[in-house]
Amino acid sequence: EGDSLLLFECKDIRINGEVIETHDYEKIIQEYREKLFKKTNKKKFKRIGITQLTGHMESVRKGKFKWISVRKDIPIYPVLVLSDYKYVKMGFNIISNDWYQSSIAELDINSENNKYLIVMSFITLFKYSKLFKEKGFQYFFDLYINSITQNNIILQNQSFDYFMSQYQYDMRDLKIKILDIFHSKVKHNEL
Questions:
Q1: Which of 29, 37, 47, 59 is the most buried (most CB within 10 A)?
Q2: Residue 73 DSSP one-character state
Q3: CB 32 within 8 A of CB 15
């Protein structure tokens, strides 16, 4: 987007219901960690979610990004899109950004141009697509980052989904998009 690079990673995860039922905060966070950051029970390291994003960031910073040619010092907005809005919880942005920062430090790619990790749901991406198209992702990402870096505990804990809820969207636009997708699938016998 203009003078920056937006990296999107989409994840369709499921958190084990038995873990959630324990109401054990540490177990629940560990489950998120296993699905979105690092698997601890694997002998071989495999990039997942956040570490996939930081791996791409490392490629950019070292001039080895294979998808497009970009400056090594370009501002990068890493975006983790979760398929289920229920997993985009208040306060999760702080936990996920701790993981993100530790991965950046581990890869030794610290840069003032590495922007804060944005975690959003697919429905937010879809719901506000018209606004994103009009003003650009970077506009809203910068507003959000500015909001959560204030010295206010409530603002610091807000999710991107919650932040975006202050903006209006037209359900008719959403309905038209859903119908277009449905009709396209029916036309191609993909349902």
A1: 37
A2: T
A3: yes
Question: 80: which strand partners?
Answer: 9, 119
List CB contacts of 116: < 8 A, sequence separation 6 or more.
97, 145, 148, 149
The Cα-based distances of 188 to 14, 106, 131, 182, 184 in angstroms read 29, 46, 29, 10, 6
What are the tokens at 86? 């229920």
Q: At what angle do helices 92-107 and 25-36 cross, to 10 degrees?
A: 50
In 3D, which of 102, 100, 92 has the Cα closest to residue 32? 92
DSSP string, 111-129: -TTBPPPEEEEHHHHHHTH
| Residue 176, amino acid | I
Work out the number of other CB atoms within 10 angstroms of the CB of residue 88.
22
pLDDT, one tens digit per residue, over 11-67 is 998 888 888 888 888 888 888 888 888 877 667 677 889 999 999 999 999 988 888
Name the one residue in this structure whose structure tokens are 């694997």. Answer: 42
Report how far residue 17's alpha carbon sits from residue 21's, in angstroms, rounded to the nearest whole number: 6
Q: Whole-angstrom distance between the N-terminal and C-terminal Cα of the chain? A: 34
- pLDDT at position 20 is 84
Give backbone dihedrals phi and psi of 10, rounded to 5 degrees, phi first: -105, 135
